[in-house]
Structures are given as C-alpha cells and as structure tokens.
Write a structure and sequence with these properties.
The protein is an all-beta fold and 122 residues long. The chain is built from no helices and 11 strands. Strand 5 and strand 6 form a beta hairpin.
Amino acid sequence: VQLQASGGGLVQAGGSLRLSCVYSTNTYRINAVGWHRQAPGQEREFVGYITDLARSPYYSDSVRGRFTISRDNTMSMVYLQMNSLKPEDTAVYYCAANSRGEYDSTYLYDYWGPGTLVTVSS
C-alpha cells in the first residue's frame, strides 16, 4: 500500500488550502482513508476519514464545519479541503489507509504516507 499527501504550504489565518492524497494497493483492502495531523511537540491527531463508498465523511470536533473530505475513486484520490484556517491548524498532515470496521482514531490506521506541512500564520 502506498499513499502520498501533497498540497501543503503557508497560508494566512482565515485562508484555505486543499490537500490531496493519492493511494494505491494490491491486496490490502482500503475501507477508509483518513487524514491526521501532527503539530510540533504534539501527538498525532485524527482529523477525519472517508470510506470507500464515500458515505458521510466523519470529522473531529476541532475541524468539523471547516474541513471537508472528498474522494475520486476513478483517480484513487482523497482530498482535504481546509477553510477558515487557524494558526492552531499548523501541522504536518498525513493520509493513511484503514481496512478495519472502525475509523475514528489514529491508532486504527495501518499504512501511512509521508506528510505535507501546513503552516497557518496569524
């Protein structure tokens, strides 16, 4: 399984960014792709996920209403649209794959790609 997140950068508070994640797999069934982030000196934090059928993406309380996850199965892509960004959203963002039946925790993801840095200036 391979995943690669991209699209990070520097943005002012209140601005927007869209992250992309391209994934591929041979035998591992990806039931969901999740987004996670890790701020400097902090533990990795679950942000949200979307299942393979793209039903009802789920978000953590800290981003719900500001972030939107979508996917394009034809392109093997998952997106994280981030609006109304705050300085506390500054982190390295990762996408990860999950083959289980639960998806709302960082610890439930088996495969991770390299992260992409998002910096939100005040």
